[in-house]
């Protein structure tokens, strides 16, 4: 399984708009993806009001690529998100059973 950590920094002044997008669009979109085993959405906190994240566990590389395309380092950008986000960071890891 592949763990994908996707973090965004929201543009200043766009925090409320992104929070609505995150809850109303991004989370429902992600939870409906075939091959997504688990998702942990992380909303902004008072000490980091412009930071949001998703920790996702994908069944395998094929499932992840079906969602984002062949280049898994590329973000999947919803048009409503594009103008709200200042920066994105994506990391991938092989999930280890403990």
Q: Could you please describe the fold and organization of this structure?
A:
By secondary structure, the protein is of the alpha+beta class. The chain has a single domain (2-94), classed as Alpha-Beta Plaits. Helix content is 30%, strand content 35%. The protein has helices at residues 15-31, 61-68, 79-82, and strands at residues 2-10, 36-42, 51-58, 85-94. A 4-stranded antiparallel beta sheet has the order 2-3-1-4. The protein is globular, with a radius of gyration of 13 Å. 11% of the residues are buried.
Please outline the helices and strands.
Elements: E1 2-10, H1 15-31, E2 36-42, E3 51-58, H2 61-68, H3 79-82, E4 85-94
Antiparallel strand pairs: 1-3, 1-4, 2-3
Oligomer: single chain
Given this structure, which CATH class is correct?
A: Alpha Beta
Give the H and E element order: EHEEHHE
Structural class: alpha+beta
Low-pLDDT regions? none
Strand fraction equals 25-35%
CATH fold topology: Alpha-Beta Plaits
Number of domains: 1
How confident is the prediction overall: mean pLDDT?
Answer: 93
Give the % helix.
25-40%
Task: Please state the overall shape, judged from the principal axes of the Cα atoms.
Answer: globular
Radius of gyration: 13 Å
Question: What is the second-level CATH architecture?
Answer: 2-Layer Sandwich
Main sheet record: 4 strands, antiparallel
Biggest sheet: strand arrangement: 2-3-1-4
| Total DSSP E strands | 4
Distance between the termini: 13 Å
Give the number of helices: 3
């Amino acid at each position: 399984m592949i763990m994908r950590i996707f973090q965004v920094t929201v543009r200043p002044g766009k925090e409320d708009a992104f929070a609505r997008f995150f809850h109303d669009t991004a989370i429902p979109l992600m939870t409906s993806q075939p091959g997504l085993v688990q998702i942990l959405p992380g909303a902004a906190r008072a000490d980091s009001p412009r930071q949001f994240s998703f920790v996702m566990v994908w069944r395998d590389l094929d499932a992840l690529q079906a969602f984002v395309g062949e280049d898994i380092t590329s973000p999947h950008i919803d048009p409503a998100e594009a103008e709200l986000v200042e920066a994105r960071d994506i990391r991938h890891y092989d999930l280890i059973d403990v």
